[in-house]
Write a structure and sequence with these properties.
398 residues, alpha/beta, 5-stranded mixed β-sheet
Length: 398
Amino acid sequence: MSGSVVSLFQGATAHTPSYGQLTRAGAASGGPVTDFCIPCNPYFPTPAMLDALRGRLHEILTYYPSDAATITAELCQVLGLNPATVAMGNGSTELITWIDHLLVRESLAVPVPTFGRWTDQPMETGKRVDMFPLPERDGFALDPASYADFLHARGSRTAVICNPNNPDGGLLPRRALLTLVDELSHLDLVVVDESFLDFADADGGGRDPSLVQEAVLRPNVIVLRSLGKNFGLHGIRFGYLVANPALAGRVRAALPKWNLNSFAETVVFMLREHRQEYAASIRQVCQDRQDMRHRLTRLPGLTVYPSQGNFLYVRLPDGVDGVWLRDQLLARHGVLVRECGNKIGSSSRFLRLVVRPQPDVVRLVSGLEALLGAGPYGARPYSSGTAAVDRLMWAPSP
């Protein structure tokens, strides 16, 4: 591996270098990179949809898109939502930014580890971020009662719940989540980030686990949804939020009139004809997740946590450093993984591995077997980068 590639990882903070940066720097020799880092749906869009997009490439790149209201109206028709309750953004991170600027006052609470923008964005605007540690001894499961007690003790004004959570894939059942949301009705705002929820199994009784329908009836609840992750199109940058008309309208009014691009418009207007293919792609990802978890759990010393996302969170065997393993997998096997040492509440002993088709998983497992059986591993002392979080994460059980 070239020194330029290593320096890309060393300069990263809460995120891995982009795929474009890595390929430009010559990330792996002898072939393309197999990506277990970026959590895309590998089965959607279908080849036929991609062919259609290629055929319209000149039109898409040449002409302005419709305004956001037009694109949002079509998305709402497909999803059965009221446009007054929806705001579409140029990726979920744009919506997180506006939620922070418009609706978060002095403090925000979030369980950690989680998606980095939920910790970084409010800190960048001078807010207090109250981080609730998800302890490894509990499998990183969120305990609603403990989180509610934490919010009360800290006096947090905004609460975030990522469901499923990134990076561990933990899912709070719908009934428990709804109870928690109602217990937090006194807060300024409760955000339920459902960016990966389409990959979750149906709730008990086959019910949709989403809180979208409940959010529109509550004065302080926003549900955030991703399109790029679900549709395997991170590069397009599109997502949406759902809330009561007053909240959704406040965010929508702050967004630029043309904040969505022509690729996003084209895909949204294709969805109506391809819903069956999309549903099939989700079923295949869920099946692959089960198979991939089975294969990984057979590796000695590797702990694989239950996940309802399109990724698996794994703890490496004792003495194995994730930075060393990430670099070796990339250099020697052409496999890119997400090492989680730069996530608050995690460490370099953990990887997040995106669910991929079986042939790719075989390549990953083969690389892990070769490296974990080789040693030495370049182990280093644990640190999340935040001493207070370290003390809470690894406190002995009572």
